[in-house]
Amino acid sequence: xxxxxxxxxxxxxxxxxxxxxxxxxxxxxxxxxxxxxxxxxxxxxxxxxxxxxxxxxxxxxxxxxxxxxxxxxxxxxxxxxxxxxxxxxxxxxxxxxxxxxxxxxxxxxxxxxxxxxxxxxxxxxxxxxxxxxxxxxxxxxxxxxxxxxxxxxxxxxxxxxxxxxxxxxxxxxxxxxxxxxxxxxxxxxxxxxxxxxxxxxxxxxxxxxxxxxxxxxxxxxxxxxxxxxxxxxxxxxxxxxxxxxxxxxxxxxxxxxxxxxxxxxxxxxxxxxxxxxxxxxxxxxxxxxxxxxxxxxxxxxxxxxxxxxxxxxxxxxxxxxxxxxxxxxxxxxxxxxxxxxxxxxxxxxxxxxxxxxxxxxxxxxxxxxxxxxxxxxxx
Amino acid sequence: xxxxxxxxxxxxxxxxxxxxxxxxxxxxxxxxxxxxxxxxxxxxxxxxxxxxxxxxxxxxxxxxxxxxxxxxxxxxxxxxxxxxxxxxxxxxxxxxxxxxxxxxxxxxxxxxxxxxxxxxxxxxxxxxxxxxxxxxxxxxxxxxxxxxxxxxxxxxxxxxxxxxxxxxxxxxxxxxxxxxxxxxxxxxxxxxxxxxxxxxxxxxxxxxxxxxxxxxxxxxxxxxxxxxxxxxxxxxxxxxxxxxxxxxxxxxxxxxxxxxxxxxxxxxxxxxxxxxxxxxxxxxxxxxxxxxxxxxxxxxxxxxxxxxxx
Lengths: 379, 310
Ligand SMILES: Nc1ncnc2c1ncn2[C@@H]1O[C@H](COP(=O)(O)OP(=O)(O)OP(=O)(O)O)[C@@H](O)[C@H]1O
Ligand SMILES: [Mg+2]
Hints:
heterodimer, A: alpha/beta, abc type-2 transporter like fold, 2 domains, five-stranded mixed beta sheet, two-stranded antiparallel ribbon, 7 strands, elongated, B: alpha/beta, Rossmann fold, Alpha-Beta Plaits, six-stranded mixed beta sheet, 11 helices, 14 strands, 27% strand, binds adenosine-5'-triphosphate, binds magnesium ion
């Protein structure tokens, strides 16, 4: 059967061949299943862990007993290690910027006196939230530490303030990353990251490998047409993509307890567009690259900005406009919004449409480019 | 173009292909009749492979025109590919597929009706049935060649382009192979075959000799030998290597080649050559004129041609 020059029998010949080759190439196959597992464990557990003993500086303008016990209490808690007493604001900012400390606690002048008078003095906690998962738990315990301290140390007029919330006003400034990603964000995001990485690489080497092994000369001398070869090479990896998807979703659900608010079917349907978009990108790379090494390098040049500018590593809205514009090109960016939308917010199709069409557009452009670049001759 | 309108399977003229500044195929014109076995000879790097690639549309020529099976080599590569079996010089089937899977792949790509039977037939004909489940990658060189040949015959092409199909194949298999080629040619299949073996060249109906991109001779074996106009003497006797060195310096001697226990000395002018040689050959050495062989002619052609690489 032939449609617009596309012959299904020839296409199927390529598909069948690719399947056999994939089955024989145990190493690559193992890697495709292995990589997601390793990444899942690395990213999933490493990021979700609950870091303690974070370096903290104190900038205190009050030298009262209560201030001192507050600093002591901080140091005794598992989360904070008081490593420096700062004297000036500039010093504090430098420490934060250089990553010497992750927190700075500001204790205002006359803190104890104001507290005793019930004036609700403000304690400012500045946090380096570059890696928000690292700071959020620590910040969460801060209020408790202060409350417990007040309970224990303060008697007299202040006791009447117990029970009423907040004898101390706690202000938190998150620096560098105002958005704050929760751990639920990461595992669904990983789905996109893993697929971007493996899908692009695997097809990027697909055609360069034929060229390197000399089988291209043979393939070209047959009547197989570019679209048949390309789509034939893509199909088996769609299935691999879905295998990876299943592994990650299962882990998300049972290892990381990520909520599934939206429709799983909708997610799987969107996955198709996303997987094929990445496979097409890889195929296009492989028509440009002269050898497998170049193909790998191209894949990494694609993967890195995807990772950095998509909103997986850093909050998308925290990036400058130009970076956002670049980020908007990558399928991962749109996919992250879709997968988080579906899983965490329970989005339905109309909600995700604004992100689905850029994904589809990317697919069409990448595939067209690949098919047009595929040379039917050796020169 | 209508395939029926021509009696030539290959009819090209002025075909030129340059890589960078080098013309690797230089204004080659060739006509190969239907059912003909045409040998294509020439030293390494002379452009044989390049020429075959042009014929089946894998390379676009920089100049020249012509048809292959009645289809234009520039514009109708698709039609040509469907009807041509091209066996590449380097093994180009999938090493991680078994013999049977490779044949099956080819059969699918060409949409052979009754695919399974066609694959079985082709396995049997080449004596590969027992080895069908072997990975192509583990086959010995000779078996790889046989597999490649089986694969490019599977879609019953009208034209076979074979690039050194018997390199590394044992004598028995080579003879079987040539039997097969002659049988197929008798059925109307045209074969263009490159080789470096003289005995194979002599089995071709006609041949062409190409050196560094230029077509130097063309015709039947007799024609090629006659065109070369080479006179050859055979010298036997003791201490031939020293004599050979001496002879090469003489005027009128174009080549001196050791053949077993004899020397073949060739030159363009029989008279002059005889005069120059006679005084040097005394008993127990013997001197006698012989027919120039194809090999003498080719070596002569080769040393006459200059590699345009230098
Ligand atoms: N793609 C290419 N780019 C540049 N040069 C090439 C290319 N393909 C072939 N050549 C050059 O063209 C010349 C002819 O090569 P070709 O393979 O046609 O020779 P050949 O007659 O088949 O040699 P052999 O008997 O060794 O197989 C060689 O010098 C080769 O280096
Ligand atoms: Mg060659």
